[in-house]
Protein 1
Amino acid sequence: MSFNLSLFPSGAPRVATLLVVDDTPENLTVLADLLAPTYRVLVANSGPRALRLAESEPRLDLILLDVMMPGMDGYGVLARLKANPATTDVPVIFVTAMSAVEDEQRGFDLGAVDYITKPIRPPIVLARVKAQLDMKEARDWLKNKNAVLEAEVSARLSEILLIQDVSIHALARLAETRDPETGNHIHRTQSYVQTLATQLRPHPRFSPLLSADYIDQLAKSAPLHDIGKVGIPDQILLKPGKLTAEEWAIMKTHARLGSEAIEQAERDAIKPVAFLAIAKEIAHWHHEKWDGSGYPDGLAGDAIPVPARLMALADVFDALISRRVYKPPMPYEQARGIIVAERGRHFDPDVVDTFVAVYDEFVNIAERYGDAQ
């Protein structure tokens, strides 16, 4: 059985809802009469009935639970309440004639918050009920406050990350303005690198480094790979013909210029920024070659940082399939053949093998971010 002993008009202060559980009608009446002037009171004369009310509206603030009941006793009811996510946080006070220390300890072990022995003393019951409700109100307030704060922090973090991403792309676009024919190059190479890294993640050579978070940072930093081109004179950067040896020497300095600019940004930051460290590696060494014949430092093999190795392949593939002032775009299959032919020379062999495995995805990315021809 159940009944509502307190009705309050809309807008009145919230009234706590209590559930009294006892198989003896007289005990239900005594407790209900004691509590009803202050609280909304529901009663149940069995464990199963109590569990049904606990899962229904209105949501309970406190349960006063008899231990010795036929069928499902109070210990069984409490265990079920704690196992149910919908009721696990509802505080339970045992009200029982059992006064042995071991009985009281068992109740606390199961999760009861207090233990009142019969015959009840009204002032003690009222004081303990109020104390538990005050504590529950404080817990609920903290829980709600934490939820609000977490939402605010999450929203602020999302805003910061968005600003960060926009700033990165703005810097990358700055480099693009010097070389307008690159079009969607930064989107394509960013996606190529992320695809390669994701595919390589289980590989034993790469798995210690390529965590999910690291791959996110790697993708975030990839657009800055050619930021150093802002320091290359237009007559060299935009020259339609073959560069002279002197011009090529100047062109190659974009790797150093890019890494130095990013390193300066690192020094200006008040604490380390993970993606900047990766971006610096990419900008500095993405023109190195597996066999040591690249620039600017002639690094070879595993001495070349992983991010730079991935960008090296992504950058070359995209350059091959893209139109430039000095060449038309190359068909995808022809570009694929060139990449494969450079396995173990220009590129890390495992990275090339991974490229072959995800080649169709590279083509999809190229089509998705294609330049107007």
Protein 2
Amino acid sequence: MMEIRQGRPEDYPQLMEQVVQSFRERNPAHPRFEPLYPDVIGPDEERMSHWRLAFVDGKLAAGIEIIPQRLRLGPDVILPSGGIGNVHCWHPYRKSGCMSALLQRCVADMTAMGDLISLLGGDRLRYGNYGWEYAGSQRTLSLSASMRRTADGLPPPLASCDLRTYNGNDADAALILRLYTQRSLGAERPTLEFCQAVLNRPNIVTYLDGDDAYLTIDRGNHIVEYAGDTDALERILRFLLKSGNWSVALPPVELSGKTEAMFLSYATGYQVTSAGMCRINDLAGTLNAFLPLLRQRLDGWMGSLTIGCHDGMAARLDADTTTFAITPTLAPADVTISRAEMARLLFGPFPPPLNNASIAIRNTLRLLFPLPLFWTPLDHI
């Protein structure tokens, strides 16, 4: 007999042991999860309530953590989302239906909680069956000081003593949180304590240039987060580039600005890749979150368009000279695709085939989509 319920503090010791042992089946040296994600994993009631646990005949068999977050995509877009993480099944219970039941429960709970989309990383074949698909886009740049060796007026490379590193100081954490929030890009960090937990993850170092900017790196020569004044960030970057080449992931062009242009000036090349796997839980809600941007893109357009999924979810767009509205509907759709294809349609980078749609509808959809979707590498999904 299977039971699925939220996690409780008393589940924590056994859960932490089983999740790491499950991951060590394929990676024997996998570190424990408690120090990896101190921001979202802990024995307290709130963080344990994010887990959905499957029990078979009263024994813990599998678990999934739903990580609630609000993605900021520029100053006008807040997108409530549920990250799916730390998915595992204890070896004796594999192929018993636990994962399928857990994923279905997570989808139902996220929808009920108002998570418009869900994000995860993992097996496309497995999660595609439940509506997740690779979507969104980011530009991953390879950076080298040689790209700017003949430029005039560049700040001289700094020495390590010219910078300070974050070491748990409350004032520095508050500064980093303020700069991060001003950037209006990435998952919201609701408290100073939460921000400190993110910054305390292992194998990262955060450099600050005065009170103007910070830049976080990992041991793989990746810049994993940045915020603040562009000139100050360039000074930190030039310090890093003294030690070799680095990489950084930039958001889509619509979410980029002066700082991203600075990074591009050091790029020897870049790749455009999907941001991760995404599921649309609420189509009308997701479109309404982007309403300011959609209004701009369809300025002057009048008419109606209904977009739907094969499983019945649909949203209707109506525009005339005075209004632009997006509402859920049960009416027949003008274009109907799968839930996984809906993620690609809305967020790209490559749209699904729309062979059954008219040319006029396809042209309208090209004006609407893709929408920008991005999160920083430190945002645990």
